[in-house]
Design a protein that fits this description.
Elements (H helix, E strand, L loop, with lengths): L5 H4 L3 E2 L4 E4 L5 H7 L14 H10 L4 E7 L2 E12 L4 E9 L8 H16 L4 E7 L3 H9 L3 E12 L3 E11 L3 H15 L1
Parallel strand pairs: 5-6
Antiparallel strand pairs: 1-2, 2-3, 3-4, 4-5, 6-8, 7-8
Helix pairs in contact: 4-6
Length: 191
């Protein structure tokens, strides 16, 4: 077991519907435009778009990507909570502009990150967590299909002191073949 480098954790990944590009200052205006609809931020830990963009550009702990569809930035997603010594990481901090909802953009982005995690990084476990009240995200995770592992009560404090219970999901390497096939079928049907 080794260490995953920043280059390994932030490659450019090209899918059928979207391209994931490592976040870069040139993406700032596109991210601001994609985040203009407040519905994209309902379940994020902050609702301050400017602070989020600044932190995303500055942080080394999260490996942020912009989601580009048809040449336009439609959102962002990340690898975070990376533990190469345990061969696990999390996919999260994901948001998309509402005009991208239902287009397959999120499905393709998750597929690209999962495929990279399992087939290139050789991860054994990929985790996801979301606000337990976020039914849209929970349905999307169940549709991957990621395994629901429970609720962590009072897991986080978000959005100016609000309590968040987090719903945890995971895909493990033993599941990857079936999950990969399911995601590929969904992506093929999206366009």
């Amino acid at each position: 077991m080794g260490v995953w480098s920043d280059e390994q954790l932030r490659p450019r990944l090209e899918g059928r519907l979207v391209t994931l590009e490592p976040i870069d200052p040139r993406h700032a205006d596109g991210l601001r435009a994609a985040a203009a609809d407040d519905r994209a931020w309902t379940w994020m830990t902050t609702r301050d778009t400017e602070a989020w963009v600044a932190a995303a550009l500055a942080t080394a702990e999260m490996h942020h990507f912009v989601v580009v569809m048809d040449g336009v930035v439609v959102g962002s997603t990340s690898y975070l909570n990376v533990f190469p010594e345990h061969l696990r990481l999390e996919i999260g901090n994901t948001w998309n502009t509402p005009s991208a909802w239902g287009t397959g953009a999120n499905t393709d982005a998750k597929y690209l990150l999962l495929r990279h995690a399992f087939e290139t990084l050789r991860a054994r476990r990929v985790e996801f967590k979301t606000d337990a009240r976020n039914e849209r995200a929970r349905a999307a995770l169940a549709a991957i299909p990621a395994e629901f592992e429970g609720i962590h009560r009072k897991h986080m404090i978000v959005r100016d002191g609000e309590r968040r219970d987090s719903a945890w999901y995971a895909v493990v390497d033993d599941d990857w073949s079936d999950v990969k096939s399911a995601l590929e079928r969904r992506i093929a049907a999206a366009r």
